Amino acid sequence: MSQQQQNTDQQLAQLRDRIDQIDADIARLISQRAECALQVAEVKKANGEDALYYRPEREAQVLRRAMERNGGPLTDEEMARLFREIMSACLALEEPIKVAYLGPEGTFTQQAALKHFGNSAKSRPLAAIDEVFREVEAGAVNYGVVPVENSTEGVINHTLDNFLTSNLQICGEVELRIHHHLMISDITRPEAITRIYSHAQSLAQCRKWLDSHYPNVERVAVASNAEAAKRVKGEWNAAAIAGDMAADLYGLKVLAEKIEDRPDNSTRFLIIGSQAVPPSGDDKTSLMVSMRNEPGALHDLLEPFRRHSIDLTRVETRPSQSGNWTYVFFIDFAGHRDTPSIAEALREVADCASDIKVLGSYPRGVL
Fold it and tell me: Can you give the residue ranges of the Prephenate dehydratase domain (predicted)?
């Protein structure tokens, strides 16, 4: 063995010893954190509290600090993901969180649920957005995860419509970068593909790529991308458009990666629950306001926000279910409803509105 090889082997041995020591330190510190989590649960129970083990504002603050302290080489998002899993596992020692999401398994909504709650939460896929709302309202689960808007295709009206009749609060949001892949099964003949399955929104988000690469292939819209992935398992002449989770879950081969037309394609998901969330330091508020259809109504609605320098991030309009030519505005803005200037603006809006309901103030999500 050459001297150079001996030196290389010695350096590698030293680095591996150092890694082993760091791993031991990490394991020890994680165990200490878990012990602290158990002590928190014991204190809450001893004081007879109706304990809220999961605190959205507290977890948001911890994740922000983890990203602020990050000096690389891991990305901020990866550092936050690691801390999320540590917190998820520790929280499960206190009280496992039960989460319902728009299913089936392998959808982007499940991916959003995992990003927000971690793998230690007990998650349950449901077939419809209405069912997610009902399960949370009934107390069968602690929280629900539903999509609300896509950067390419716009708002999901069905989610907004559920807030018209629900008293649930928005407790958080998840911003998820959406990457679509063309995938096939082990029996698919790539040269003989005659149909491509996917959710209607995914087909729309990949329209230009499909026009260029598969202009004459039938595009079949199905209930979810996971359903699309499941269908191609038994069809030799079909492909599916779905995400990484669906490919892994159904054992599919990715034929083409990241075929979405816009590289910044992302979807926003809402976390719904029954609790109001205290300020976290970087929050958003969602509001539902009913207005009569009369001249100047929109101006009267928006003027208090301008006067109090409140940054509106989204305004959507839906027809009221009560009819009478009234409209419902869904408004998102930066800040927490407990902030004095925002509380005053909301009082002014209430003076000119037919009805107003604060859907929730919650920590701002990050990609």
Answer: 98-274
Instruction: State pTM to two decimals.
Output: 0.89
Domain span at residue 339 reads 283-363
Alpha carbon distance, N-terminus to C-terminus of the chain:
50
User: Which strands sit side by side in the sheet containing 238-242, from one edge to the other?
Assistant: 218-222, 195-199, 238-242, 181-184, 253-256
| Position 233 in a domain | yes
- Look up the CATH number of the domain holding residue 329: 3.30.70.260
The closest alpha carbon to 150, from 269, 307, 39, belongs to 269
Task: Tell me the pLDDT of the chain (367 aa) as tens digits.
Answer: 688 888 888 899 999 999 999 999 999 999 999 999 899 888 877 776 556 778 999 999 999 999 999 998 999 999 999 999 999 999 998 878 999 999 889 899 999 999 999 999 999 999 999 999 999 999 999 999 999 998 877 788 889 999 988 999 999 999 999 999 999 999 999 999 999 999 998 999 999 999 999 999 999 999 889 999 999 988 999 999 999 999 999 999 999 999 999 988 899 999 999 999 999 999 999 999 988 777 888 888 999 999 999 999 999 888 776 656 577 899 999 999 999 999 999 999 998 888 899 999 999 997 6
What total of structural domains would you count in the chain?
A: 4
